[in-house]
Every structure is written in C-alpha cells, then in structure tokens.
C-alpha cells in the first residue's frame, strides 16, 4: 500500500503539469518574499541590494535627492524585460518565462503591498535581510527560474562562450556600492556589503548557481532521444552502444553535459519520445572544452 502511494507520488512529480505548477508557485512565492524583504529589512536599514534591484534602489534614492519619486517596481520591469528578450535565445525558454514571471510578481508585490518594519536594530536588519534575500533567490532557483537581471546576462554569456563573468559582475556591484557610499554614506555601504555576503552564503547553501550536471541516459531509441534533446536544450550529446547486464539486449548509453537549470526541460523532452528511458544525473565539478553548441 505504502509502495503504491510512493509510486503514485513519483509519477505525479514527473507530470509536466505538476512541474509547471510547482515552478509557478515558487516564482510567485519568491516575488512575494522579495517585496517583504525590501519593505521590512532593506529599506528601513537603507541597504543596497545587488544587480538590477540594486540599480533600481539606487536610482530611486538619487531621484529622491531631487524631489522625484521614481518607482522601484517600474524600474525593475524596465531593466529586466528588455534584457530577457535579448538573451532568451541563448537560455532555456522555460527558465526565461518563469524568471520574467518572478520579476513581474516581485514588481507587483513591491508596488501594492505595504509592510511595517518590526526591527529597529540596523545590524539585525542586515542579518535577517541577508537571510531572507538569499531565501527568495533560492526559492526562484528551486522553481527552475531566477530573479532576472544579471542572471540573464551571466547565463547567456556562459552558454555562448563557456566562460563565466563573475569578475565583471563583482566589479559592477562594487561600482554600485562605491556610488551608493559616496552619495549616502560609507556606513550604509559597509552594511550593504555584509548584507550581500550573507545573502550569497544562503544562496550557495541551498543552490549551486549555474552548476553543470551530467546526464547518463540508457535508451533503445537513441536517434529520437538525441533529436529531441538537441532541439530543446541546444547542447551536444554522445551515444555509445551498450548491452544490458541482465537482459543482454542491445541498448544505447547517451552522455550529455548541461546547466542545472536546463535539467527539467531536458528530462521532459526525452521522456516524451521514450517513456522507458533510464536517466542518471551526476554533478559535474569540472568541464573542459566548448560547452555551448550553436542551434541549427
């Protein structure tokens, strides 16, 4: 009885509709938590976030110096959507779609929801803000999405060139902090560095961003699986002829390396052409060679 229930649960989790629903719930929840973190911790402590949210906060504060009320939620949309449209061809369509949904939800909740801060101590706001900031980013990543912004650019460049741009992103965020410190006080810039560090540690605890994984797939339909895989994911895949150890029947072992955020798309598409396929997912610590294969 218990085994049957467990099998039904696994089958439900593999259902594409269930996966889409879970992704939708994750990005909506992430957007809500983003608004909560901004209103309750970031704004009262006058902290600066990283990425496009950081740009939006900085522009909002600079505008306030001149008496202009520039909407953070509107700035987030104006910055994120054009970048997403420019980068979507080099990123999983599903990942891009849910990331845009997260940005829209976050912008909407920031605009309409009002939370009262409940901590007066600035250091506690920094600590709790960093934790909650990391949690909402991790929740989006668990839903096979992101919080947009520089994630789009980083993934696009990583897939195109096989290289990361962490140094450039770090430099960009450093420039934001220098501008922020020069205009609004180095004390708050220092607190913002601690806030961003805590957030990064929380994210790395729950999710390894842009991690590459290896899929080992055993199938009797290699051509169909490879065609579906390369059409959906746009990465190379290798095929080896094999023999079943128990059945001694002829089978094929497919080997592919891809980004962690693309795994769900890849598994969905190969299961459609071969429901009997066996997939083993492995963590890839190091990868050498050209990673991204240009679409046909």
TrEMBL record:
This is Uncharacterized membrane-anchored protein YitT, contains DUF161 and DUF2179 domains. Signal peptide: none annotated. The keyword Transmembrane helix applies. It comes from the Bacteria. The lineage of its organism: Bacteria, Bacillati, Bacillota, Bacilli, Lactobacillales. One of its GO terms (cellular component) is plasma membrane. Residues 235-289 form the DUF2179 domain. Its main location: membrane. InterPro entries: DUF2179, N-reg_PII/ATP_PRibTrfase_C, UPF0750_membrane, YitT. Pfam families: DUF2179 (PF10035), YitT_membrane (PF02588). It is a multi-pass membrane protein. The chain crosses the membrane at residues 21-42, 62-88, 95-115, 169-189. It is found in: Cell membrane. Keywords: Cell membrane, Membrane, Transmembrane, Transmembrane helix.
């Amino acid at each position: 009885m218990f085994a049957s229930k467990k099998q039904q649960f696994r089958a439900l989790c593999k259902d594409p509709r269930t996966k889409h629903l879970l992704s939708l719930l994750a990005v909506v929840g992430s957007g809500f938590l983003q608004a909560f973190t901004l209103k309750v911790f970031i704004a009262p402590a006058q902290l600066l976030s990283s990425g496009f949210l950081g740009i939006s906060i900085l522009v909002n504060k600079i505008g306030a110096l001149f008496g202009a009320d520039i909407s953070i939620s509107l700035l987030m949309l104006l910055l994120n959507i054009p970048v997403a449209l420019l980068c979507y061809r080099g990123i999983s369509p599903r990942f891009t779609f849910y990331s845009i949904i997260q940005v829209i939800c976050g912008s909407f909740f920031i605009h309409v929801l009002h939370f009262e801060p409940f901590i007066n101590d600035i250091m506690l706001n920094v600590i709790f803000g960093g934790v909650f900031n990391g949690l909402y980013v991790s929740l989006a990543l668990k839903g096979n999405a992101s919080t947009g912004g520089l994630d789009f650019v980083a993934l696009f460049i990583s897939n195109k060139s096989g290289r990361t741009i962490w140094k450039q992103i770090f430099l960009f965020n450093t420039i934001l902090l220098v501008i922020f410190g020069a205009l609004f006080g180095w004390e708050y810039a220092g607190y913002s560095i601690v806030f961003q560090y805590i957030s990064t540690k929380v994210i790395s605890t729950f999710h390894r961003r842009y991690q590459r994984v290896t899929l080992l797939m055993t199938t009797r339909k290699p051509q169909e699986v490879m065609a579906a895989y390369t059409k959906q994911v746009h990465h190379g895949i290798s095929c080896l002829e094999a023999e079943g150890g128990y059945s001694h029947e002829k089978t094929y072992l497919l080997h592919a390396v891809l980004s962690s955020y693309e795994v769900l798309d890849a598994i969905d598409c190969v299961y459609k052409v071969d429901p009997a396929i066996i997939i083993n997912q492995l963590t890839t610590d190091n990868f050498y060679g050209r990673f991204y294969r240009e679409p046909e």
